[in-house]
Amino acid sequence: MFDLTVIIPTFKEEANIRNIITEVDSVLRTSGLNGEILVVDDSSPDNTIAIVHEIGKTKNNLRIIVRHADHGLSQSVAEGFLRASSDVFVVIDADLSHPPALIPEMYQEIRAGNDVVIGSRYREGGGIKKWPFKRRVISLGATFLGRLLFPDITDPVSGFFAVKRSVVMHAPLKPRGYKILLEVLGKGVWERDTEIPFEFSDREIGTSKLKVKTIIEYAQQVEDIALYSFGHHESAVWREWKKVFKFGLVGISGIAINLGILQILLLAGISGYTALFFAIVTAILNNFIWHDLWTFRDAFRRQGTTTWYRLRLFYIVSVGGAIINYVIALVLNQTLGMRIDVADLIGILIGFVWNFLANRRFTWGRS
């Protein structure tokens, strides 16, 4: 039984395959890990398959699976999950864009209790080298969409990650495109994750396989995962939907507190502006307390920040949301002639989105 299986999906990688196998095998042996190297190839028409067979004659921990249908990187990785001989999988690209030297650290993080370990280009200490502007923009856009589903993860579309077999064993994965990690996070069953920063290096040899079709498939994948979560409440995405729902309920309670305090202070003879100020401040404090104790209870415990720190951030974000609400309503009313109540409602909705995303990221974010 192997400690882990390193899955390498390939298609026309004859220029890289020997180097990546050699480097991965060297890292495994140096670190004392009994690791399997599993190459999953999409019927490459070049010499990729022949080279792997040649190397396999001298390495008893190397296997190759040649797929003859339903080609694609994600499909190859999913096939690797099914055919691996261990309970821990590490996925790495064949083009040397991911550093094999991090494989032992990923394995140790899995052994420490994490279900998923992600190599992150966007966590502090990570980065991207030699990447064209167009690809960088596309990657940032894809990462932004992914983080709407998984706000605590800086790089949910990374191609370099480790995962326990138990996470994907019964997951109804629908692999497509290049973002298999997003599928694993969205449909796998997991609780704990961590990220390891690394510097991504664009392929030195060969050509990128990114196409317009890939972008379309990715958008469809995000939609599919979001819809999937509504029927599978054990999923990580559903945990985020519950936070949105709780955030909305707390917001409604804040409105009630605001109006109630305002009326009480006005009846007590307090001037209008002073009463409004205290009503708003009290409502924001009410919202913070409920979010801290209920909506984001697990999130702030992971982060370990102080209550006063979170309270200050929450007030700043709330003021920003109020400004957004006001500006949106003003523009819609005066520029487009929209009724003020309708314009205000749109402003409230946009302000709500701002408040949730900003607080989820900064006030109660993991990093």
Explained architecture:
The protein has helices at residues 17-31, 48-56, 73-83, 103-111, 133-149, 165-168, 180-187, 212-231, 236-267, 272-295, 297-303, 307-335, 340-363; strands spanning 4-10, 35-41, 62-66, 88-91, 116-120, 127-129, 161-164, 193-197, 199-201. The chain is α/β, with parallel strands linked by helices and 367 residues long. It has a seven-stranded mixed sheet, sandwiched between helices. A two-stranded parallel sheet has the order 6-9. Helix 5 packs parallel to helix 8 (212-231), helix 7 (180-187) packs parallel to helix 8 (212-231) and helix 12 (307-335) runs antiparallel to helix 13 (340-363). The model has no long low-confidence stretch (mean pLDDT 90).
Topology (SSEs and partners):
Blueprint: E1 4-10, H1 17-31, E2 35-41, H2 48-56, E3 62-66, H3 73-83, E4 88-91, H4 103-111, E5 116-120, E6 127-129, H5 133-149, E7 161-164, H6 165-168, H7 180-187, E8 193-197, E9 199-201, H8 212-231, H9 236-267, H10 272-295, H11 297-303, H12 307-335, H13 340-363
Parallel strand pairs: 1-2, 1-4, 2-3, 5-8, 6-9
Antiparallel strand pairs: 4-7, 5-7
Helix pairs in contact: 5-8, 7-8, 9-10, 10-12, 12-13
What is the 3D shape? elongated
Helical content (DSSP H or I, runs of 4+): 55-70%
Give the CATH architecture of the largest domain: Alpha-Beta Complex
For this structure, the CATH topology of the largest domain is: Spore Coat Polysaccharide Biosynthesis Protein SpsA, Chain A
What's the rounded overall pLDDT mean?
90
Describe the structure in brief:
It contains 13 helices and nine strands. By secondary structure, the chain is an alpha/beta fold.
